[in-house]
Design a protein that fits this description.
UDP-N-acetylmuramoyl-L-alanine:D-glutamate ligase, alpha/beta, four-stranded mixed sheet, nine-stranded mixed sheet, 317 residues, binds 2-keto-3-deoxygluconate
Amino acid sequence: MVRPTETPVEVISFGEPLIGIYPPVDRSVSDDVPLSKTWGGDTSNVALALSKLGHTAAYITRIGSDEFGKSFQRLWQEAGVDISQVQIDDEHTTGLYFASFRNGKHHLTYYRKNSAASFISSKYIDWEFVRMAKVIHLSGISQGISQKALEVSFELMEFAKKHNILISYDVNYRPALWKKDVARAIISHTINEYANILEITDDEMRLLGWEKEPGDLKSSLSRVPSICAVKMGEKGCYLMRNGEEARIKPFQVEVKDTVGAGDAFDAGLIAGILKELPLIKLGEFANAVASLTCRGTGPLSMQPTSEEVQRLIDSAH
Ligand code: KDG
């Protein structure tokens, strides 16, 4: 554990942070080009985005005692993300990904097998601290990295369910992490048994063999979470809340890189839920957080504040 805390937070995110290594825009890491470093990992991006939006967030994970792990600790601390639940591993290293860009699309190559996060243990989780949160956020990546991580995800969700903490679940299906039928079974079980807030992309619906149209999500699931968000990239998003449905258009910005846009959307959605926004405003808020994040390279450089989000929304009306 990094340090104890008594201060409750609104959101606890759980998963794996990854160092991201980037070539210049439109190049590949295999080219002979200088590379730069950023910080990523879907659930770390969500915790950081929420903190930037003015919410309190903590991160449950395990990092190496290596230089990359130390740099993550500094990053979270400087951003105000609570790191009291971060475990340090002297034997395993912090994971990495390398980004490459081809024809306007990104491709990620991972070095995360046996990473510190895949050795996460629930033994060090302060359950009293978890009990005080309003939302727990996790993803298919948080579950897919290892058996241990999968078990911790279910312990956290069982606990959250018992204590009426909202569970936000981003499918974030990564075929490199697990076999499709295993992924589909675990993802479906998680949604059917636990998720209160579901985030999924239209591409993931197709890859998992579910219905293609966002509105058909209902027929693919045996239990529909109270809030479902289908992220559709440049087509915006589709939201469903307790029977009410809406399609919300995206905002136009100059896009540099879409890595982390989906995580930013999740943070915007959670922030909007905490603010109790009505459905259309909720979708606009989440879309705006995602759009503004795409102005920078890497998932973090352009994560917006609430004021920037509001300015973009106001300028579009
Ligand atoms: O959503 C952005 C993530 O894809 C990136 O940060 C890397 O977490 C990552 C992953 O596992 O793909």
